[in-house]
Write a structure and sequence with these properties.
alpha/beta; NAD(P)H-binding protein; 4-stranded mixed beta sheet; Rossmann fold; UDP-galactose 4-epimerase, domain 1; NAD(P)-bd_dom; 7-stranded parallel beta sheet; Ergot_Alk_Oxidoreductase; NAD(P)-bd_dom_sf
């Protein structure tokens, strides 16, 4: 098969590309970074360098493909995250229609259907292509973005912001406290990008007649259980994940000078996770869990943590 992979050489796209090439497929990897061109070639894939805002570039890249894996990259520099993501999604839709794409696998989020303004999945209903929406849980790899803050000391009473689990969280300057408007004993489904890549590779070779939705997870834990696993791996078994109110979270994000609309969207995303509705939807779909446990990832995290 001729398969197009978006997401450059990210945490999902690179293992996915490796997997597809090993299976004998012809793979084109789309990246906005010209510096990734040689690395993509070294994997045995074909690089396509261009912008997601360029519909013609996307159309030309998609033409002749048997299937396309697509994702919408988050940008926290955009004052209106929702408008930005809707525009990228619409660019994809136009390009798919122009290119005559027959099979699309879209990476979404497990809270996507619960958000008032940020659910982009319905835009893909315009397509005549076979479409599968993947809704993964909270990524293991986002713990990397909290690494420096887990190490931080001397900021008592202050808040620092970090991207966490695909959204944002807060960490106090008091070492060993993760904070957000979901946390504590909230039960969350965490997921390894490797397990997501496995699910994408499987779906790309299917052709369901109607739009399908597939939830993807690796392990269900409370936030405090997850924090303890990560904390133990780095020598801080007391690591806790403190639950803030929506109001406290919003205030913290505004203190970090995030645009108001963006801050409100991020609080809404986390509130959906705290409500338990995301977990209810996940269980209702009865998905098969992946293979990678958080303790496995924590070993990799600890190596990187102590190296820096």
């Amino acid at each position: 098969m001729k398969i197009i992979v978006t997401g450059s050489l990210g945490n999902i796209s690179q293992p996915l590309t490796d997997m597809l090439i090993a299976q004998g497929h012809s793979v084109t990897v789309i990246s906005s970074d010209p510096k990734k061109k040689e690395a993509i070639k070294n994997l045995g894939a074909i690089p396509a360098i261009g912008s997601m805002s360029d519909v013609k570039f996307l159309t030309d890249s998609f033409k002749g493909a048997d299937a396309v894996y697509t994702m919408i990259p988050l940008s926290f520099t955009e004052p209106d995250l929702g408008a930005y993501m809707r525009q990228i999604a619409q660019n994809y839709v136009e390009a798919f229609q122009e290119a005559g794409t027959k099979r699309v696998v879209l990476l979404s989020g497990w809270a996507a259907d619960l958000l008032k303004d940020e659910n982009l999945e319905h835009l893909f209903d315009q397509l005549t292509a076979s479409v599968t929406i993947l809704r993964p849980g909270a990524f293991y790899t986002n713990f990397y973005q909290s690494m420096d803050l887990i190490k931080a000391k001397g900021f008592m009473g202050k808040f620092l912001t970090l991207r966490y689990s695909g959204f944002w969280a807060l960490l106090t300057g008091k070492t060993g406290l993760l904070m957000g408007n979901y946390g504590g004993e909230d039960r969350i489904v965490f997921v390894s990008p490797k397990d997501i890549a496995d699910a994408v590779a499987e779906e790309l070779q299917l052709m369901p007649k109607e739009k399908t939705i597939r939830y993807v997870g690796s392990q269900e834990l409370t936030c405090n259980e997850a924090a303890k696993i990560i904390g133990t791996a780095v020598g801080k078994p007391w690591l806790k994940w403190v639950l803030l109110s929506d109001k406290e979270m919003l205030q913290g994000l505004k203190m970090a000078k995030l645009p108001e609309k963006l801050a409100e969207s991020l609080v809404e995303m986390q509130a959906a996770m705290h409500s338990g509705k995301t977990l209810e939807n996940f269980h209702r779909s009865q998905p098969k869990m992946g293979k990678v446990k958080l303790a496995d990832f924590a070993k990799e995290f600890a190596i990187a943590y102590h190296k820096n």
